[in-house]
Each structure stands twice: as structure tokens, then as C-alpha cells.
Amino acid sequence: MIQRPDWFSKILSLLTAAVMLFMVLLSGAAAADVTLRWDPNSEGNLAGYKIYYKEKFYGEPYDGQGAAQGDSPIIVPLALLQYPDNPQYQITGLEDNKICRISETFFYGKFD
User: CB neighbours of 32 closer than 8 A, spacing ≥ 6?
Assistant: First the structure.
């Protein structure tokens, strides 16, 4: 067995503790990303979709806050969708390890 100086073990222990602390802090600050996919609406005058979200419980109000795309509802005009016939949209910045309820509706004409 190799004999190492006492200071070597102390430095190694401190480095290990620092890395573990960094990983814990980093994991706590992580944000969740969610990619939503849904069946397209086949109406001819469809203008886009509204995505509502909130934490924890079902039902209104869907008053979620904190997503990078904005507070609920997130307005998604058809022009923002890469494939309107196969709609999908990514929401980023939600709090990690939280239950989030999401609902989607569609709208016609201009978004209000």
C-alpha cells in the first residue's frame, strides 16, 4: 500500500466535499423542460393555441408562473410551430421536481 502524506488526504477530502456540495447546489437550481405534443385542430381558420399551466391541483385557475416563455397562458401562434400538422411546443424554466398540470386550447383569428 502506498503511504501518502497526511496533508494529501485532507486536500483530497476537501476537494471531494467541494465537488459534492457543488453538485447538490447545481441539482437544486435545475429547471425542468417539458415538450408538449398534441393532436392538431383541423379547423380551417385556426390561429394558434394557448397553453395553460399551474402547480399541483387540477382545475382553474391555471395561473402558473415561472416558465421562460411567460406566465399562463402561453400564446402559441401557428407561425411559431415548426410543424403545425404535428404540433409540439417546449416549455422551459419550470421548477424541477414539482407536479405541474398543463392544459391546451386553440383559438381563431387574433390572439387576445
Answer: 94, 95, 96, 97, 98, 100
On whether residue 26 sits in a domain, the answer given is no
Q: Quick check: 89 pLDDT over 50?
A: yes
For residue 80, how many other CB atoms are within 10 A of its CB? 13
pLDDT tens-digit map of 13-47 = 555 555 554 444 444 445 688 899 999 888 888 89
Residue 22 domain flag: no
Q: Quick one: which of 65, 61, 50 has its CA closest to 107?
A: 50
Q: Give the separation between CA 59 and CA 102, rounded to whole angstroms.
A: 10
Strand partners, 48: 77, 107
